[in-house]
Amino acid sequence: MFSLPKSIQELNSRQARLCLEIEKFGKSRAGADFSSGNMLVGVSGGIDSTALLIISTLLAGKSGGRVFCAHVNHGLRESAAGDAEFVAELCAELGVRMESVRYDVRDYARSHSIGLEEAGRILRYGFYQECMDRFNADYLLLAHHLGDLCEDVVMRLIRGTGWPALSGMDAADPGRKLLRPLLFTSKDRLRSFLESVGCPWREDESNLSMQYTRNRVRHQIVPLLIEENPGFGNGIRRLKTQAELDDDFWTGEVNRILSCAEGLDSGEFFVPCSVLNKSHPALRFRVYKTILESLGNGHVLSDSLERLDSAFSGRKSGSTVQFPGSKVVIVNKNGLLFKVIKTIDRESGKV
User: Fold this and answer.
1) DSSP string of 108-158?
2) Is the Cβ–Cβ distance between 68 and 94 less than 8 Å?
3) Element (H or E) spanning 306, and its range?
4) Structure confidence by residue, pLDDT tens digits, 252-268
5) Coil, strand or helix: which one is 7?
6) Global pTM value
7) What sign has the CA pseudo-torsion 185, 209, 121, 199?
8) Which one, 133, 183, 202, 256, has the greatest CB density within 10 A?
């Protein structure tokens, strides 16, 4: 189908520099030489993931790593079968082992009463995990790039996300062994890379549909922001870098407070007033949120956190603030007790 470079030395200087920049960024976020390990790359066949797969194989060849590919057909487009064929041919040319699967995302969404995007995400990441286990992969590489980061920031702003999560998706998630090495790379550079090596790609027509929020942000809102500020992408890159520094600082501060909390056997947490009294409200809010999230599912709303802090600051001993997921925080003169209220199934009588 096409002939692709087998090593970075076969690239022109501009494209070789791009590969090395991506490797440097990935290492800085992973905290290790990811390209020397087993990498599973999620590939749809579009510009971003096609470029990532090729670049990953070039970096693996330099560092001694191995690359595997996972492709998901969501069953939403007739042209999706052609995407799977393209990715299979690409993997054959690169000598990469590929695993693919087809899901009926529309049926899954309907049966679970969720949206198509959420259904696709659940099925896709479930398959990725299966492939991670199958290949004993050290990293799951996804092709989110700078444009995706810009869109994510705008979407989080629309939803009212707080700082530093407002800065968008993370480049690395150690818990899921997930790495986004292209996150600070523009799509234009990825397109130029593929053109320079003579590699085609597939276009997903659903990316043009205004049915999805992300597409409306991508095609309507972000272009207006770039029109107002052509350096918008660079600004988002700086925002993300600053947020990573802030997040590292706040994580350390929250852990310092949590080290003074009492973890009870029942999964309850008690944080004494002697610790909270010395903490700035910005720190207290983060402590509240961290503990509540550790108690289980249930989205923590900022309004509820404000009510909790108001009750604490007002010394409203005996008051209780409720949170989703049957979680409550009880205020007393000595501190705050975080716990989950156990519910009883009326039919079975079981907790």
Assistant:
1) HHHHHT--HHHHHHHHHHHHHHHHHHHHT-SEEE----HHHHHHHHHHHHH
2) no
3) helix 302-313
4) 999 999 998 887 667 78
5) coil
6) 0.88
7) negative
8) 183
